């Protein structure tokens, strides 16, 4: 049974801190781009080499966030100042997701305050992190844009009322029909490959509108995270490598009626806990922008993606905050008179919610003890898929703790 949603709205006082183409492709009636990869590889700033990562630990300027979920001395779990068990008794269906609306607000405010002084910056919420419609509507009201990786997410963002000019369409498999909608609505589109660029050109012609594009560059920076969520290294499927970049610049120049190059984008990965990694990538990116501007392009945006890590283990570890992240790139952005785009996902939503399950029974097979609950991997797939850590609370009167496995 699918889990329901309950959004807790009241707000006690807590710190504002965070811990493939179509069968009938309309593009076929247009000439294929008459371009070949150029041998003019950028070398002025030695950009073809891998970035050297700083080994010094990040200096955290703001305190670790206070989680909206707490466990009281009597063993009960609270969300803000409300006992979760009391909420369970009022909710008709179980299991359910419980969200703290105030914590979502505080998380957005942490980014907003960190971006003060950086003109026209965009907080683009990565909808893939959580596409709950009520949450999307709330984030829109808070002034966020949206980061999209599918036509479904594009549709959700438009239905939720997000400003299309603050939406960014990512992904290396964007299809023509979705790109046409993006072009019609005025959404930023990140260019990821040669065929992707061809489809964007086709979409622009069909829509009769010029598309604002950013080039997604693969900077070959190791984010030092799980391989499944590393997206900015040399062998990643995402982005444009240095040796191919000139081809894309020539292609944009060849289509002035369809494309306007407005920025450069990179995304390194997820769960990054060293802000120096973002700084190293930003240094590379502004050097690329210098070269791109030298060829006559008016580039206004630097998109450094998302991926700020969170305290999964609830250990109280001092992790980088939004301000720490922004401060590492602030001077680079200001020195080039750029508008900054960031794409936070889990750092906006992860500490705001929990999946509330009910224990249906216990059993033992062999030497293993199981606690059977009414939830499943359909509601929480990450532990099974990524062998990721999850934390759970259980309370029972006069209960002696035993090692058990959730099932």
From TrEMBL:
UniProt biased composition (Polar residues): 8-20
Protein transport keyword on record: no
GO molecular function (one): diaminopimelate decarboxylase activity
Domain Orn/DAP/Arg decarboxylase 2 C-terminal, chain residue ranges per copy: 97-392
Cofactor(s) of this protein: pyridoxal 5'-phosphate
Keyword set includes Cell inner membrane: no
Gene Ontology annotations of biological process type: lysine biosynthetic process via diaminopimelate
Keywords of this entry: Decarboxylase, Lyase, Pyridoxal phosphate
Segments of this protein annotated with the region Disordered: 1-20
PROSITE patterns found in the cross-reference section: ODR_DC_2_1, ODR_DC_2_2
Domain Orn/DAP/Arg decarboxylase 2 N-terminal: 103-350
Family to which the UniProt record says this protein belongs: Belongs to the Orn/Lys/Arg decarboxylase class-II family.
Protein name as it appears in the record: Pyridoxal-dependent decarboxylase family protein isoform 2
């Amino acid at each position: 049974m699918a889990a329901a949603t309950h959004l807790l709205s009241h707000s006690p006082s807590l710190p504002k801190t965070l811990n493939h183409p179509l069968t009938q492709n309309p593009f076929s009636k247009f000439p294929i781009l008459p371009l070949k990869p150029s041998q003019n590889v950028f070398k002025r700033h030695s950009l073809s080499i891998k970035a050297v990562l700083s080994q010094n630990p990040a200096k955290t300027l703001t305190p670790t966030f206070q989680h909206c979920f707490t466990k009281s001395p009597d063993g009960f779990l609270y969300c803000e100042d409300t006992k979760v068990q009391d909420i369970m008794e009022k909710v008709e269906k179980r299991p359910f997701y419980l969200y703290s609306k105030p914590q979502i607000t505080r998380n957005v405010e942490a980014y907003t305050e960190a971006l003060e002084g950086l003109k026209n910056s965009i907080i683009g919420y990565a909808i893939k992190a959580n596409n709950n419609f009520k949450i999307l509507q709330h984030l829109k009201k808070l002034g966020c844009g949206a980061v999209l990786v599918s036509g479904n997410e594009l549709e959700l963002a438009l239905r939720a009322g997000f400003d299309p000019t603050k939406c960014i369409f990512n992904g290396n498999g964007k299809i023509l029909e979705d790109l046409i909608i993006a072009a019609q609505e005025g959404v930023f589109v990140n260019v990821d490959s040669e065929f992707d660029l061809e489809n964007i050109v086709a979409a622009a012609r069909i829509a009769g509108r010029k598309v604002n594009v950013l080039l997604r560059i693969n900077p070959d920076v190791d984010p030092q995270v799980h391989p499944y969520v590393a997206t900015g290294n040399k062998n990643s499927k995402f982005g444009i490598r240095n040796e191919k970049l000139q081809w894309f610049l020539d292609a944009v120049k060849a289509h002035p009626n369809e494309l306007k190059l407005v920025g450069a984008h990179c995304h390194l990965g997820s769960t990054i806990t060293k802000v120096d990694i973002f700084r190293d990538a930003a240094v590379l990116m502004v050097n690329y922008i210098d070269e791109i501007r030298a060829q006559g392009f008016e580039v206004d945006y630097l998109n450094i993606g998302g991926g700020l890590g969170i305290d999964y283990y609830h250990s109280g570890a001092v992790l980088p905050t939004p301000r720490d992240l922004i401060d590492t790139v602030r001077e680079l952005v200001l020195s080039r008179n750029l508008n900054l785009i960031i794409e936070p996902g889990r750092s906006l939503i992860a500490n705001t919610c929990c999946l509330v399950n009910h224990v249906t029974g216990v059993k033992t097979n062999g030497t293993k003890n199981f606690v059977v609950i009414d939830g499943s991997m359909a509601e929480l797939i990450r532990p099974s898929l990524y062998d990721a850590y999850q934390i759970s609370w259980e309370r029972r009167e006069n209960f002696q703790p035993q090692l058990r496995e959730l099932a």
